[in-house]
Design goal:
The complex is a heterotrimer of chains A (81), B (749) and C (222).
Chain A (H helix, E strand, L loop, with lengths): L1 E9 L6 H9 L14 E8 L5 H15 L5 E7 L2
Antiparallel strand pairs in A: 1-2, 1-3
Chain B lengths: L5 H6 L14 H11 L5 H10 L2 H4 L4 H9 L7 E3 L6 E6 L2 E9 L1 H6 L1 H18 L3 E11 L5 H21 L3 E8 L8 E11 L14 E6 L9 H6 L19 H16 L5 E4 L4 H12 L3 E5 L12 H6 L5 E6 L1 H13 L3 E9 L4 E5 L2 E6 L1 H5 L15 H6 L11 H13 L7 H4 L10 E3 L6 E4 L7 E7 L2 H6 L1 H18 L3 E10 L6 H21 L3 E7 L3 E2 L2 E2 L3 E10 L16 E5 L10 H5 L12 H16 L5 E4 L4 H11 L5 E3 L5 H6 L6 E5 L1 H13 L4 E7 L3 E4 L3 E4 H16 L4
Parallel strand pairs in B: 4-5, 9-12, 17-18, 24-27
Antiparallel strand pairs in B: 1-2, 2-3, 3-6, 4-6, 7-10, 7-11, 8-10, 9-11, 12-13, 14-15, 15-16, 16-21, 17-21, 19-20, 22-25, 22-26, 23-25, 24-26, 27-28
Chain C lengths: L1 E6 L6 H10 L3 E6 L10 E4 L19 H11 L4 E4 L1 H8 L6 E3 L7 E9 L15 E8 L3 E3 L2 H9 L3 E5 L11 E5 L5 E4 L18 H12 L1
Parallel strand pairs in C: 1-2, 1-3, 3-4, 4-11
Antiparallel strand pairs in C: 5-8, 6-7, 6-9, 9-10, 10-11
Classes of the chains: A alpha+beta (81), B alpha+beta (749), C alpha/beta (222).
């Protein structure tokens, strides 16, 4: 069984108010020196068989079509060994 | 772990069982053995422990709540009374309205967002199971001191949860309360009310009858949510010395509930169910035992058929799970296909899990073995009944004697002016938009009045303009000083708020929030409050249709203020005739209805000075009835431009609220002691604004009902002017009013 | 004149949009997300709500509903299409309109009576307004911040495709205070605030929203 991880993040130029809120909260818990927090999503996609290049390409298509909104988000795809 | 079956239970009667850890007393455990004629299986023990917990069985409150039935006034308006999921009232034109209020207090302290969200989800399902389309929600909320650090954790989470769930369901939030008091610090109160509308013929009840009829579980799949949540959370208070409990909290999905609502309404429209019950506290244990108990026979359930989200759950956990958004219906075999078809259309999981039979028992099997075989009545309706001892608290008389005379009263105009500014900026009276802007009040397009109006009002019929209004109120400080009178005053205020908007009060619901019933002082408060409310409802001719009791709101020795929230529902023939609270134009005449006396015990003024003591005012229900008649008649004749009742902060605050909404000021003169005139909290008073032309008619109506009327002045101008006392520009009033909440809560997540 | 209103699982303001259409004098036709046929309607409204619970992203799943394929075809051929709130989100996810709607900048759901300035009255849905007209209609959402890249923004401004802008303080962080936009042709309009909740003074802040629905009916008749 194979597992492919897709991570989706807002494009750097898009305002991330959730990340900003988290960055503001962390110092209150004692974390200093944090200059930025950005929040994203992680998808774990499992299927039978090996993670062939074809399968990876399929997942990339899924990322482009559904998992990420390319207007405002970027994505990365990698195989989870 | 080997399966504990009925057969096994019959063979080892002395097997040790953890009944105490599950919250059962020894005599209760022995009673179960007596009922069954053997020891219970672990599944049966789980069922009884949850169903006999305080939250589910009302064991400490039943003996007192009986009064609502015993003292029920005769009324034709009540279509379904206490005992069902919610009460149903006839509002005319063939419409029936169901409404109810419930608490979800302890979960909201543990996980504010989900606790509040699932509280909304639960009450909405109760309304749905009556056969109604839910049309509105309201939320009376109470928190610890506004500036306490934990309040900054709890309040924003609760508000976000109510908004997040209610908005997604498409239910307008039309009112509620937000009150702060240190006694709620470890025990916030999240009470959720829901209103539903249907035609008379649509009413559904929760009973399983008809041998051979099928029991269908539909909605979300079952997981490990809130296992033991009910009995653990509701029946135990939080103890500061022990590590904080972290039971699995229920997590809600409003989208699943939204499609469940649409699915159910289509099912109801085609008359496909005999009975229906929602799965709330105690999950399947509750739904199956209640359906069977209320029905005519018995029920057999095959637990293996329950669709699971988590395959590792054991049968006891499946029975006790409080996974949200699930319903249980009794369906005739010939109607099953169509039922399942509608569920499929809405992508709602639906499974036949059992059947109604004539055995008079509730039996549950797992892997072909019987693990539950009980008489359902003993689980659902014949739980323990306690006669908890109650006694007036040792400090009661002393508190009642401690009138707020030690506090220095404002005397000069400048001091009176400052007192008003202090009051309207205090957390209890400050502008609540920071909260209410997070709620959708427009969805469904029938909201006629919403916060901060005196009552929330919903249009029911677009053609005729028929509508209903609901208000929830209680002054818990008055209840602490005199719980009997405080409960009467709560009813009076809710009743008055409904009448002020022009609706005729019809029925009552209540959410009784108290400390530990094991404390005789708390039990005394409860007994007094219930008796006061029951007596008052009888006097005013309003039936109590149902409600909720929440005990154990206590951290260590400190119980919350006794907080019996009273909700009143009223009907209005034409919502166009409703009376809003804001001054809409200059030149309107202002009249104060009702007498003012020196009433400051338990007042908001005393509160901001840190004082709680004295005797609260006495409710005069005959006066309230006549006052309501004046407001309803005048409203119906369209002669009131605005009306607002007087409560916290007295006349000055009422005037401020009426003028700030549309920024139309007022110019008034007062007589006698200005402090009393402006800030006393004597009940039974309303301020009205009307045109000069309508004054005569209005005065005649008031005279006919023997309600005293005093002309105070007129509306108009950019300020609130109290002759010979002070002038406050509306801009200043508004900023002072609006600053408090953002300063306290913006920036908290 | 028949205007279809689509119901997705989780749609909320579909019945309110239907009421607005009726009040404007049209016939509201209910359309089901899973159907392919548009039932010969003259125009379509994608209503507000939380289709699919806003799972993944608002409108991300609804855009793949069977009925959306037919709607996209017809809209590209000129059929009038109005997306309100969640509907606007679905139009952006479908790429029928450019840009995207993101979380309100202060992270809270916000329901308020919002003043807007109508900037384009040559769309099929706004012809009953005048350019520069101020209207007050309810804004109620948690994800209403309109975002797009600089190029898209410049194009929208240059081509006059901003239909409405927030007046006064920007309530949610939308670029250039954009509250609503249209496509090149002017038949597809996306709007975050809710005109269907401002059609009678009894239940709304004004009657300013009705003109969205009277505009289209007049356009269809002529």
């Amino acid at each position: 069984m194979a597992r492919i991880i897709v991570e989706v993040m807002l494009k750097p130029e898009i305002l991330d108010p959730q990340g900003a809120a988290i960055a503001a909260a962390l110092p209150r818990l004692g974390f200093s020196d944090i200059t930025s927090v950005r929040q994203g999503k992680r998808f774990e996609i499992e299927f039978e068989g090996a993670a062939t290049p074809e399968k990876i390409a399929e997942v990339e298509r899924a990322a482009e079509l559904l998992l990420a909104n390319l207007v405002i988000e970027n994505y990365t795809v990698r195989v989870n060994e | 772990m080997t399966l504990d079956t009925v057969q096994a239970a019959g063979m080892d009667p002395d097997h040790e069982q953890p009944y105490s850890a599950l919250g059962l007393k020894e005599d209760e455990y022995l009673r179960i053995k007596e009922i069954l004629g053997r020891r219970p299986t672990s599944s049966e023990l789980a069922m009884y422990s949850v169903m006999w917990s305080e939250h589910c069985s009302y064991k400490s409150s039943k003996v007192h709540l009986r009064q609502f039935g015993e003292k029920q006034p005769k009324t034709d308006a009540l279509l379904v009374g206490i005992g069902e999921n919610a009460g149903v009232v006839d509002v005319g034109q063939g419409y029936a309205v169901t409404f109810k209020i419930e608490s979800h207090n302890h979960p909201s302290f543990v996980e504010p967002y989900q606790g509040a969200a699932t509280g909304v989800g639960g009450i909405v399902r109760d309304i749905l199971t009556m056969g109604a389309r839910p049309v509105a929600v309201m939320d009376p909320l109470r928190f610890g001191a506004a500036d306490a650090p934990d309040t900054k954790r709890v309040l924003p989470g609760v508000v976000a949860g109510i908004g997040g769930y209610g908005n997604c369901l498409g239910l307008p939030n039309i009112g509620g309360e937000i009150v702060f008091d240190p006694t709620y610090a470890g025990n916030p109160l999240v009470n959720a009310l829901c209103i539903g509308v249907m035609r008379h013929g649509d009413i559904k009840l929760a009973k399983a009858s008809g041998v051979g009829n099928l029991v269908v579980l539909f909605g979300a799949k079952t997981g490990g949510d809130g296992i033991g949540g009910v009995s653990v959370l509701a029946s135990e208070s939080f103890d500061a010395t022990r590590p904080s409990k972290r039971p699995s909290v229920q997590v809600g999905d409003p989208f699943v509930e939204k499609v469940l609502i649409e699915c159910c309404l289509e099912i109801f429209a085609e008359d496909l169910v005999i009975g229906i019950q929602d799965l709330g506290g105690a999950g399947l244990s509750c739904a199956t035992s209640e359906l069977a108990s209320a029905g005519t026979g018995g029920m057999h359930v095959v637990l293996d058929r329950v669709p699971l989200r988590d395959a590792t759950l054991v049968p006891e956990e499946i029975l006790m799970s409080e996974s949200q958004e699930r319903m249980c219906a009794v369906v005739e075999p010939v109607k099953l296909d169509r039922f399942l078809e509608i569920c499929s259309k809405w992508d709602v999981t639906a499974t036949v899990i059992g059947e109604v039979n004539d055995s008079t028992r509730l039996t549950v099997e797992w892997q072909n073995q019987i693990i539950v075989d009980v008489p359902p009545r003993t689980v659902a309706h014949e739980g323990p009944v306690y006669q908890r001892p109650f006694a007036e608290p040792a400090d009661q008389k002393q508190m009642q004697a401690d009138e707020p005379t030690s506090i220095v009263r404002p005397v000069t105009g400048e001091q009176l002016r400052q007192t008003l500014l202090d009051l309207i900026s205090s957390p209890n009276l400050a502008d609540k938009s920071w909260v209410t802007d997070q709620y959708d009040k427009y969805v469904q397009g029938n909201t006629v009045l919403a916060q901060p109006e005196d009552s929330g009002m919903i249009r029911i019929d677009e053609e005729t303009g028929l509508g209903v209004a609901v208000s929830t109120d209680v002054n818990a400080r008055w209840c602490r000083l005199d719980p009997y009178e405080g409960a009467r005053l709560a009813l009076a205020e809710s009743y008055r708020n409904v009448a002020t908007t022009g609706a005729k009060p019809l029925a009552v619901t209540n959410c009784l929030n108290f400390g530990s019933p094991e404390d005789p002082a708390v039990m005394w408060q409860f007994e007094r409050a219930v008796t006061g409310l029951a007596d008052a409802c009888l006097e005013l001719g309003l039936p109590v249709t149902g409600g909720n009791v929440s005990f154990y709101n206590q951290t260590g020795e400190v119980a919350i203020l006794p907080t019996p929230v009273v909700g009143v529902l009223g009907v209005i023939a034409d919502v166009e005739k409703r009376t809003p609270m804001a001054f809409s134009e200059s030149g309107l005449e202002l009249y104060l209805l009702g007498e003012t006396r020196n009433d400051f015990a338990g007042s908001e003024w005393a509160n901001i000075h840190g004082h709680l003591g004295g005797m609260p005012p006495r409710a005069d229900l005959d006066h309230e009835r006549r006052l309501a008649n004046v407001l309803i008649s005048a409203g119906g004749e369209g002669i009131l431009a605005a009306a607002h009742d007087l409560s916290d902060g007295g006349l000055a605050v009422t005037l401020a609220e009426m003028s700030m909404k549309k920024m139309v000021g007022a110019n008034i003169s007062i007589e006698g002691d200005p402090f009393i005139a402006l800030f006393s909290e004597t009940p039974g008073r309303v301020l009205v604004a009307l045109t000069k032309q309508n004054s005569e008619k209005f005065l005649a109506l008031a005279k006919a009902e023997q309600i005293s009327v005093k002309h105070l002045g007129t509306t108009g101008g950019p300020a609130l002017v109290v002759t010979d006392q002070f002038v406050i520009p509306l801009d200043l009033l508004k900023t002072t009013h609006q600053e408090t909440f953002p300063a306290l809560f913006s920036g908290s997540r | 004149m028949r205007i279809g209103v689509v119901t997705f699982p989780g749609s909320l303001d579909d019945r309110d949009a239907a009421r607005a259409i009726r009040m404007a004098g049209g016939e509201a036709v209910s359309l089901w997300h899973n159907d392919h046929s548009l039932n010969n309607v003259d125009g379509v409204v994608l209503p507000g709500g939380f289709s699919y619970g806003d799972y993944l992203r608002c409108g991300a799943i609804a855009r793949f509903a069977p009925i959306m394929s037919e709607i996209a075809i017809q809209a590209k051929a000129g059929m009038p299409l109005l997306g309100i709130c969640n509907g606007f989100q679905i139009l952006c996810e479908s790429h029928l309109l450019p840009g995207a709607l993101t979380r309100n900048s202060d992270l809270h759901f916000l329901c308020r009576d919002q003043e807007l300035i109508i900037e384009n009255n040559s769309t099929l849905w706004t012809s009953d307004y005048s350019v520069g007209q101020h209207i007050t209609i309810p804004l109620k959402n948690g994800e209403g911040s309109y975002q797009c890249d600089d190029q898209t923004l410049a194009m929208l401004e240059a081509e006059g495709r901003i239909v409405a802008r927030y007046a006064g303080e920007n309530p949610n962080g939308s670029r250039n205070s954009i509250a609503g936009i249209t496509n090149e042709r002017g038949n597809i309009v996306g709007l975050m605030p809710h005109p269907e909740h401002a059609i009678e003074n009894l239940t709304g802040p004004s009657e300013d929203g009705l003109a969205f629905f009277t505009s289209i009916l007049k356009k269809l008749v002529s």
